[in-house]
Amino acid sequence: MKFKLPAFLENIESPVEGEVALRKFAANPLAFGGDLDLFSAGANGALSGNATENSAIVVGIDEVGRGPLAGPVVACAAVLKSPDALLTLNDSKKLSRPKREAMFDAVKDACACYAIASASVEEIDEINILEADFLAMRRALQALGFPGLKETAPEIPIEVKGSFAEAAAAARNATRVILNEAPRNEGSSGGLPKILIAVDGNLKIDKMPQDIQMPIVKGDGRIASISAASILAKVFRDRYMDKLEELYPGYGFDKHAGYGTKAHLDAIRRQGFTPAHRKSFHPKSL
Q1: From 90-104, 121-135, 199-213, the region with the lowest mean pLDDT
Q2: How much is the pTM?
Q3: CA distance 25 to 7
Q4: Please, what's the b/e burial string for 50-69 (b: 16 or more CB within 10 A of its CB; e: otherwise)?
Q5: CA 45, CA 95: separation in Å to the nearest integer?
Q6: Is 208 in a helix, a strand, or coil?
Q7: Most Cβ neighbours (<10 Å): which of 37, 45, 134, 150?
Q8: What is the rounded (10 degree) CA torsion for 280, 203, 93, 118?
Q9: SS3 169
């Protein structure tokens, strides 16, 4: 089922503004119409207690590498420390590679937690690219501690910082400071908060709780946490494709990242396919 952009995000002018609006929604979904409670039926393991203990966090998730003829699909799940943690966040496709590279470490620092995962060429060919997208996303969420997921480890090691539990503990302590409550050193033992998964695009992730997901069309330009995930996934995959060019020189993977450019197609005609090419993406022109 394809989803339309939520009405409260239609007039968003920046990713930071969208992140603020989405966090307000996650904190009180009933205030936005009352027709959708993302945290119903306990599907999210919601905590009981006061507002400090029961706050929700927004995790943005995006993928890169859906269309190329070669290389893995890479997904990133990211939670920002605050909506305005990095004001230059935007859709990675609107940023040049040098700009993305320059922002990479700053985006990591702006995240309370993140995980970058992938699905291999073999998995793409076996289960199709859409299911491989979802697999990479679930692997990223699993690495951050989302309960109930039991995915296999990907071929490329996952890069991860922190966890949902640690991000929630930090957010609760920050809230206590605002409320003049005594902070507690909870580490990762404070339990999982309610989680709203903001997915770039118009589909929800398969084999995951559906009522805590919100697909957001062009979300990488509307929601800051999705923008962060977009940049981290894109830089991670670009660097991996650089390594593939070293392994299979002459294909230009460091320039086109595996997409079906004329130069890439010409290289395949000259040199043939490599193990890094997707068999299910065989161009008709070859």
Answers
A1: 90-104
A2: 0.90
A3: 12
A4: eeeeebbbbbbbbbbbeebb
A5: 37
A6: coil
A7: 134
A8: -50
A9: helix
